[in-house]
Amino acid sequence: MKLEQSFEVRAPLQRVWEALIDVERVAPCLPGAQVTEIGEDGTYHGDFQVRLGPTTAAYRGKLRIESLDEAAHRATMQASGTDRRGQGGAKATMRSTLTEDGEITRVHVHADFTITGRLARFGRGGMIEDVSNRLLREFADCLRSTLEQPAAQGAPARNGTTPQRRPIRGLSLLLHALLDRLRRAFPGSG
Fold first, then answer.
1. Cα angle value 75/79/80 (rounded, 5°)
2. CA dist 105 to 16, 54, 81, Å?
3. Which of 145, 82, 142 is CA-nearest to residue 118?
4. Residue 171 confidence class, pLDDT cut points 50, 70, 90
5. pLDDT tens digit string along 36-66?
6. Distance (Å, whole) CA 21 – CA 168
């Protein structure tokens, strides 16, 4: 499954770039994600939990920065995880490219991912895509709220205090994804 999304941050390109490639720093912005360990080879190990209706999936996995192009502000990351109960897994390749337009930094994310197991059934009808888009929007909102502050107020801290790790709100996420889908189906009604 492929997913593309862009968002803007009103902050200097270098500041956004440094935050995006600092996995420990931005992990708290992804609901349900937590970095638990950093390997000697630079691989990040962590947990990700999502609840969709009656289904909860808890993944243990790893993320590795595959490539960084500092000059082009392009990063490629590989992530993989397995369901803690052994009932599926997920793999993803995420490419992020940053561009600057005055005081605004545009972040374009292209993700190619596969999901197997219990959550894969939500892939039918585009629900996984809707939920993924919603997660990325929440990530972008969190990143904006931390990076758009003046530098004197501080960027996101590494100790997890800013921003704070929030558990993923599965029912809320599912309802918002359904509302987004209905708005697309019936434009002008909301």
1. 165
2. 7, 38, 30
3. 82
4. very low
5. 999 999 999 999 887 766 677 788 999 999 9
6. 22
Give pTM, 2 decimals: 0.73
In the numeric block, the tokens 């972008």 are attached to 140
Ordered structural domains, the chain, with CATH: 2-185 (3.30.530.20)
How would you classify the pairing of strands 88-101 and 74-83?
antiparallel
pLDDT tens digits, 126-159: 777 777 788 888 888 999 998 987 654 444 444 4
Whether the CB-CB separation of 133 and 180 falls below 8 Å is answered with: yes
181: nearest Cα among 125, 141, 139, 107 = 125
**Dist. CA 111–CA 72, nearest whole Å:** 18
Q: How far apart are CA 14 and CA 98, in angstroms?
A: 9
